[in-house]
Amino acid sequence: MSETVTIDGSLLEGGGQILRVALTLSCLKRIPIRIYNIRAGRSKPGLMEQHLKGLELVKDLSNAHVSGASIGSTEISFSPKEIVGGTFNAFVKTAGSISLLLQVALPCALFAQSPINLRLRGGTNAEMAPQVDYMTEVFRPVLEKFGATFDFELVRRGYFPKGGGEVAITIQPVKELKGIHLINPGKVTSISGWSFVAGALPPHISNRMADSARRMLLKVCRNINIESYKEDRNVAVDNASGIILTAYTDTECILGADALGKRNESPEKTGERASEMLLKNMDQQTCVDSHCQDQIIIFMALASGPSSVKTGEITLHTKTAIYVVETLTKVKFNVETLETGGNIIHCTGSR
């Protein structure tokens, strides 16, 4: 076991990103860590329910010794053992994001001793985090380029503020990840997605979101298929609305965007917000969108061999992920700024 590495949680993004990436790498590299100033950049510093459940999840995965694991804690120590297989649960009482629980556990599970089943409860569609639909429709295909995947079952939707969503995920371990090379964004050939309402909201809201998004996207692509529907009451009881969009290019790149409906916002505006996000990534000629950009950093670092990925502007979340990876491993990243716009992120991974 290595000596304990201390990390200042207030640096860069100053939120949950440092905690998630550090915990994951601590498990994978068997490196004890101490993190202080946790979420110091947030209005309510320290561990929230969602962060605590993520910490407890990787603790269970790696049979780790942990101190400071309580709501509001601004400092933790985490000392992992081997990552075992089996079935693990993480139940967030609030609408805390299920996707963020998956982010911290997935890389660990991919290198477990045997298959892992996760039962995660919380928010399936929440602000300030990827919707679970994004994780399956955009992130998972990108993950598969590294040579890994996961099986996903949606049991129940959970929305703000009650949560209550539930998913079942099965992850088969891999011997290694392979480096990826995504440097040619290509041309968008099709755009798909879906627009939904749930609870007591009328179906016409989903139609209006989809129509609004379609009008904007027709400027750049004629092959558009956005499904509109109302969630089954057995799957989604509470009120919510939203839209998920995915663009595919002729070089097998995938870009995603989404938006949740808000009070005092028209369905047309919700559809426009998702479309504007997607169009921005398309305009930047990127091979991964801004949400996927930071998520793949840890997989680039764990892959065997080099990876290169063309992106748009480097986000603060990506800079944070790179910082934590370089702090806890010997992997170094190089960001190449292109004269034509955008960047290429390079690294040579090392499991």
Protein traits:
351 residues; alpha/beta; 4-stranded mixed sheet; 32% helix; 28% strand
Biggest pleated sheet = 4 strands, mixed
Helix content: 25-40%
Distance between the termini: 16 Å
- Mean pLDDT equals 95
The total beta strand count reads 16
| Count, helices | 9
Q: What value does the Rg take, in angstroms?
A: 20 Å
Give the strand order of the largest sheet, numbering strands 1, 2, ... along the chain: 1-2-4-3
The amount of beta strand, in percent, is 25-35%
Topology:
Layout: E1 5-8, H1 16-29, E2 33-36, H2 49-62, E3 65-67, E4 75-79, E5 86-91, H3 98-110, E6 116-122, H4 132-145, E7 151-156, E8 165-171, E9 181-182, E10 188-198, H5 204-217, E11 224-230, E12 240-249, E13 254-260, H6 267-283, H7 290-295, H8 297-302, E14 305-311, H9 316-328, E15 333-337, E16 343-349
Parallel strand pairs: 1-2, 5-6, 9-14, 10-11
Antiparallel strand pairs: 2-4, 3-4, 6-8, 7-8, 10-12, 12-13, 14-16, 15-16
